[in-house]
Design goal:
Order of helices and strands: EHEHEHEEHEHHEHHEHHHH
Strand order of the largest sheet: 3-2-1-4-7-6-8-5
Largest sheet: 8 strands, mixed
Structural class: alpha/beta
Helix content: 55-70%
Number of helices: 12
Mean pLDDT: 90
Number of domains: 2
Strand content: 15-25%
CATH class of the largest domain: Alpha Beta
Length: about 300
């Protein structure tokens, strides 16, 4: 009997997949009650070769459909009572699997702890990522979801809440978690189920930020069907509010005094403001695109 199915979607990250599979090999070994499913999201033969070299199952998508589509194909192919979602760039820790599985003894959905690793002489952006990247406990408490990079779910839950939304390229973990919460299933934070994620630099952080912001706009407007004008106005207000808050912060805390006393904290506050502005800008531009495309489509139908 298969206890747990570890589902790993991957597109073109051969190095990340190898790191993850090697970590699983070192920490879990060849347990007969565990299956590992690599969901090759149009990544080609190199992904297949890596999966084969580690003796794990592979589910192949002919073209890149997105990570949520890949995860769904993994769910369909799985045999485990518990579904475990892991990203192809993470390393697991010794007790990760046992801790995550144990957390579901009295729950239906558990988000594990994701730590960000630093190596060498990290940049200020990598230090910021180390401190702020994955507040999983906060996500569960306030937004009711955990990232699919370290998620444990009772498989029977899928029958009740459905699969991941394949129309989303980002935000599908949030959508799934909210559906789980709204239907009254218990969500917990599995602090002992720890994975290690590499620190992201500036470029990688903005790529991720853009993806998350655009995913949030798509989730809000296309899935939740919230008011489009109100969403645009709310996002615009937030976008304008950030530089005003920043100016007030500079006036309240003398620039040079704060710089001399605590340079790291000063940098972190500045980076947080920059990221916040970028997030609202990406959200607003994607929301505008959605409204424009749907209006154009509606006008064409009327003709």
């Amino acid at each position: 009997m298969i206890l747990a199915s570890i589902i790993i979607p991957v597109f073109n990250d051969e190095g990340g997949l190898q790191v993850t599979l090697e970590s699983i090999k070192q920490n879990i070994g060849n347990r007969k009650d565990i299956e590992i499913i690599v969901c090759n999201d149009g990544g080609g033969k190199h992904i297949s070769e890596i999966a084969a070299s580690y003796g794990v199952r592979e589910v192949r998508l002919e073209s890149n459909k997105g990570s949520y589509s890949a995860r769904n194909r993994g769910i369909e192919a799985s045999s485990g009572e518990i579904l475990v979602f892991l990203d192809a760039d993470q390393q697991i820790t010794k007790n990760w699997l046992d801790e995550g599985v144990a957390s579901l003894n009295n729950a239906d959905y558990a988000g594990g702890q994701i730590k960000v690793a630093l190596h060498g002489e990290p940049s200020i952006w990598e230090l910021f990522d180390h401190k702020t990247a994955f507040p999983v406990k906060e996500f569960l408490q306030t937004v009711h979801f955990a990232p699919t990079g370290n998620l444990f779910v009772q498989k029977k839950l899928i029958e009740k809440v459905g699969y991941f939304n394949e129309s989303l390229r980002s935000g599908g973990d949030r959508d799934f978690g909210i559906r789980v919460f709204n239907q009254g299933f218990k969500q917990v934070y599995a602090s002992g189920a720890v994975t290690i994620h590499p620190a992201r630099g500036r470029r990688e952080q903005f790529i991720k930020l853009k993806r998350i912001a655009r995913g949030y706009a798509e989730l809000t407007l296309l899935v939740q069907n919230k008011s489009r004008p109100l969403f645009i106005l709310h996002t615009l207000r937030k976008f304008i509010q950030v530089p005003v808050e920043t100016l007030w912060w500079f006036l309240r805390y003398p620039f040079f005094d704060y710089w001399r006393q605590d340079k790291i904290t000063f940098h972190f506050i500045v980076l947080r403001k920059i990221r916040k502005s970028a997030y609202f800008w990406y959200t607003m531009t994607r929301a505008t695109e959605i409204i424009f495309l749907q209006t154009h489509k509606s006008l064409r139908k009327q003709k």
